[in-house]
Specification:
The protein is α+β, with helices and mostly antiparallel strands. The protein has helices at residues 4-8, 15-25, 48-71, 141-169; strands spanning 77-81, 84-88, 100-104, 116-117, 122-123.
Length: 184
């Protein structure tokens, strides 16, 4: 038997191999055109794409209208109550408290409006925190000298406490004298 016949059809063919080829030859791929059964109905639905585009445009217009409506700054009435000003649009025209004075806001100046909940008719206030500046007093020459003495005393005390701690824990002692050289 020549094995080259299986790979490149050179050499003498084997009768057993030729029988297998004939049996399996009926199962070989045979190209033919695609046949669509008559029971399957092909319909063209070209309405979906235009409807999807129209819905997207409508949603975009609605979103833009809502954004413009809620982002539009409006001139409100400024209510001043013991310590600050707050510009809010009045929801229901009730008179302001007795200790409040109403000042009209010119329309050319824009003031950031706090959010107003229309459901509960309450005004949400903002807490503006300003940084606190602490003025450092200037020290005299004598006070500066005293400050330096206190800092030196604290450094000395810290060194002594570290030495006592090492002795009590039985740790090796750190050479307190640095930069020494042997003489002679």
């Amino acid at each position: 038997m020549n094995d080259n016949y299986l790979w490149d059809r050179t050499g003498a063919p084997n009768t057993a191999v030729q029988e297998f080829e004939e049996l399996l030859g009926t199962l070989r791929y045979q190209p033919r055109p695609l046949e669509i059964p008559a029971t399957i109905r092909v319909r063209r639905n070209r309405l979906f794409l235009p409807m999807a585009i129209a819905a997207a445009i409508a949603l975009t217009i609605l979103a833009a209208a809502l954004w413009i409506h809620f982002a539009k700054p409006s001139a409100g009435t400024t209510i001043q109550v013991a310590g600050g000003q707050q510009s809010v649009p009045l929801i229901n025209q009730t008179p302001p408290p007795e200790n409040a004075t109403a000042v009209s806001t010119p329309p050319d100046k824009t003031i950031k409006q706090p959010r107003v909940s229309t459901r509960h008719q309450t005004v949400l206030a903002r807490d503006v925190r300003r940084p606190i500046r602490v003025a450092t007093p200037a020290l005299t020459e004598q006070e500066l000298a005293e400050k330096e003495q206190v800092l030196v005393a604290l450094r000395l005390l810290s060194t002594k406490l570290n030495l006592v701690q090492r002795k009590s824990q039985g740790l090796p002692q750190v050479n307190a004298i640095r930069n020494q050289h042997k003489m002679g």
